[in-house]
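Hey,
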Amino acid sequence: MSTDLVATRSAWHRVAEHVLAAGQFAAAGRIELRVSPGGFSTTAGIDGRQLAVVGRELVVVDGDQQRTTPLTTVAACAAFAGVTPGLHGTYPPATAPDPDAELRVDDAATLVLAAWFALGDAALRRFAGATEEPVLWPEHFDVGIVVDKVNYGCSPGDDAIGEPYLYVGPHEGPPAPGDTFWNAPFGAAATAEEVRDIDAALVFFERGRTLVAESRA
């Protein structure tokens, strides 16, 4: 796994929690973010403003006005967006705010992460149809849905699985051993090396749904 990808993922995660989600929770009581072109953005907004991370920049959209600034530190991004840095009041943040620490963001890595989020978001929308809206949850920094008590989602990687991956996680845990599909403690995972396009992602999600249904029958 590229160190640039890990560093960029970490920087995006910190901004997601301590700038976008922090500002939105303070203003609207919601932490849900969403995948958007080039990265991710707020959903409810902040006093009429929407914030987005696009590549290595923070974008503030206020009506028909748009301002951008490089991702340098959490403190600088929060000040530019007009929010108080640091997520408080909804869950213990998964990342430290480190307001003055450098945000290391690599251009090539942002393209990889943005493309992976876009693939996962598109696959989840096709998989669930109009029944579920994919949410990018800032604490896990993944985009997911829940269908019939099964988590389906797309992660840019984490401490357990270092590279980007898709997952299927039944709430009751994976079915009894016997099918190699279930290859993770929470259920099943397929890495970006195994999932090259939306169609492959749909095959993975559908396989999980079928196996769960069979195990519950």
